[in-house]
Fold these 4 entries.
Entry 1:
Amino acid sequence: MATIINLLNTTQIAALTTAQIAALTTEDWRTFSTDQIVALTTAQVPAMGTRAVSVLTSDQLNALESADLRALSTAAIRALSSAQLAALGADQLDKLTTAQTVALSSAQIASLGSADLAALSTTQMAALSTAQVAALTTAQLTSLDAA
């Protein structure tokens, strides 16, 4: 079945209920424009779930506002691929909650660029688990020392 999401304007997107957001398919999420992503409310974002987050493009992820990123569940954050996480960039990664930062897998932590890692707050860095810290590369650790 073809998606009709591209026919909805931003006002209609913002009016969708969380149940309607949760019912959207991965095909629907793939067709969302960045303007439609921006139109999502912070109350709607948690309803996206891991399935939706895992298919978002770099442009779609970059369209998420800070409050929207913080509204994502830890499971949704863990569902991000390394490429998606890299697409967020330092200006968005430092907006993650401590719980979201702790939810990142060791592989996700290892995939962060030096600038991304350096952008994490002291609180976020202090919350990293032993496994997450052990996953840091020499280059990442060196960049922290330089920062």
Entry 2:
Amino acid sequence: MESLNRTDRSRTRFRIFQLAMGFALLCALGLTQACSGSQPDAADSVADSTREAAATASTLQQIERQRLAALVDADMAVIQRLHAEDFELVPPPGVPLSRADYVDLVRTGGLDYQAFEPISDINVRVHGTAATLWYSSRIDVVAAGQGHLVHEAWLLVLYEKRAGQWQVVREQATAVGGFPPAG
């Protein structure tokens, strides 16, 4: 009787093995079909997502260039539109500035940008309704209390999409070679 039980157990194990192998084969075939394009919805979705991310990145690069031009031109309407109410900047000296302080400095000439331009690609990473931009820039500014400064800086800028519009929320500028720049 015991030998019969062993035989039954062996058959049961073999049958489970066969079922598992059959299931693995079906899964492998299903993955092969998915990879070969027999499911266009998944591939189309990835392609659409990639195109959308590239379009958003391009839009943000344009907005950032527009923002820098507005700072040079002291175009207060554009500056106020693109900087969120809770915007904060940490400039190279390391003292944080609120939106109100920063906008006021540009408006009054306390920060008079002569040039503010990217000198590297503006790298963009989009995360839903937020995006980070990272690039190197050349800044030529007359700053009250510091004089005329020309230097390079790395910028890390955080944008958020609010009410359908991209706005700068945070900005960190790190001077290349230290601050203030060697004269």
Entry 3:
Amino acid sequence: MTLKDIVTAIEAYADPSLQESWDNTGWQIAPMESSDECSGVMLCLDVTPAVVEEAKDQGCNLIVSHHPLIFKGLRSITGASQAERAVILAIRHGIAVYSSHHPDGAISLFGNVYLCNIFLLSIYIVIIVPVNKHHHIRILLNGPGLS
């Protein structure tokens, strides 16, 4: 499966045209060739230097995040901020970064289940809640895409 195949599947589910005008959904660090084979995908909420290092250690050449790595733009890349350090590391290690950020929380929450289906992954979730709140969790977990 190529990097382009994966992003095409993500965009079929979470159309980038639905983003808000101020948002930055899409390639944060594009691969030199979108036809490159994907060696592995790291899913995360935020791209940090630690996430990039873990992706490298796990042999992943694509990070798919919910929050954009580059949100307001970068005037320089000096390593002064966490975002700049993550950009430097991703480029150094040949890791592409794609963000799928949408204002609809359901796309984010259930999108992770959808992405795991694309990558043929299983999800195991451990939830610890107070005894008197367990009914709220049951309602949430009976939502679309979760079983």
Entry 4:
Amino acid sequence: ASDFGRLSSILSPSKTIYYKHTHSQLAGRMLDNWHEYVGQFIKVIPFEYKKVLHDEKLAKLQQKIASVERD
């Protein structure tokens, strides 16, 4: 699933609950036009976490290369 698909599924219950409790005009507009607003969200990842993900991916790739070289 895409990041936006996951965002929509995670926020789906809480976004309507928030609106029901606050009656926020912005929340109402966002709910009414969710398909337009979802693309405005950005994914924030701390540098350190991004480096860990990169290092893990690199290690897996190196393992795969090593296993191919042994064959």
